[in-house]
Amino acid sequence: MQPKNAFIAASALALATATGAFAASHATTVTIATVNNGDMIRMQGLTEDFNAKHPDINLEWVTLEENVLRQRVTQDIAAGGGQFDVLTIGMYETPIWAANDWLVPLDDLGADYDADDILPAMRAGLSYDGKLYGAPFYGESSMVMYRTDLMEKAGMEMPQAPTWDFIAEAARAMTDKENEIYGICLRGKAGWGENMAFITTVANSFGARWFDENWKPQLDTPEWKEAVTFYYNLMQDAGPPGASTNGFNENLSLFQQGKCGMWIDATVAASFVTNPTDSTVADKVGFALAPDTGKGKRANWLWAWALAIPAGTDAEEAAKKFVAWATSKDYLELVAEKEGWANVPPGSRTSLYENAEYQKVPFAAMTLESIKAADPNNPTVGDVPYVGIQYVAIPEWAGIGTSAGQEFSAMLAGQQTPEEALEKAQTLVTDEMEAAGY
Fold it and tell me: What are 182-195's pLDDT values in tens digits?
């Protein structure tokens, strides 16, 4: 009987191997373009869960720095290149690209997906003509993250809703350049979604605006001069060296190393600065609303990094399965189970902020308050013809925001004055808008 049993076993093994090989050869590959932020890196580490549920789908990752990602995906989708099946994009691109028929609507991600649970601000910003075109992986506003020990040492107390004057005074008081402690770390790296995202919110809070009601550029106004000069002087006095090349990830690293007294940036950073595995100051971090000047607008933005599917992909159904997995309530539970509630991607779902365990996270309430305080339909003190807080929701923004960002980065590097940077930015924005027919 032994030879017969051996023959059966060998045949079964051969059949299983052939079946596995057949399945592998017929697997659908989904190529995902994403940004090298911590939450996306964590997602890649948790894809065993997706693989177990979808053995017929292979995931390929293209992980890029923020500016490079934006350039690559924009060039690819505009040219119909088809390099990617899932794109990581935001509130700026989603409605514009959807209007161009460049994206697949995401109104059929499964009966248990619960799209109604997505925070209204995020759903509105990722929709076009009533349909969702980007599923939020995480949502954010911006807020103040600060060292409680350094604030106490400076003899000051952070209010829940600080003014820019308080921030400037505290930053200078906390600065100790001899010991590589800088009172404030702010974005300086050129890019429409890097330094211009931050500088635009500062401008909003000082009463400035990109365009008047007739689309005339306004960078030559006193409000812009006051805002940019304030930012420049503050960074000269209390910022780190080389700030003109610092974006989100660079400032995150500086803060985690204990070199920043304050950092005003994305609320999503809170989980990383309070994570004792990565942050040397994890137990010494406080949070406050983004600053204002008393004119009615705080310097906080509204953004979501979302997953979208380009029209024309040959892996649409598989891509939808991945998007549904990565942006679902079950994914939040998975991260909580593996990494703890503090590390769950924030700002995307109402149910997360109703969760009793998540409510214990020290920055949860401030994140939600910051998101609710952001109003992209009324971003400035004066009236404007555009929507968007840290960006202007027109196709030309990517170009003018990037070009202006280069001028302000050069300013921060000491290559020109605030007045010179503003004069150049005003000229290039005017030229671009006239060429576009505004």
Answer: 999 999 999 999 99
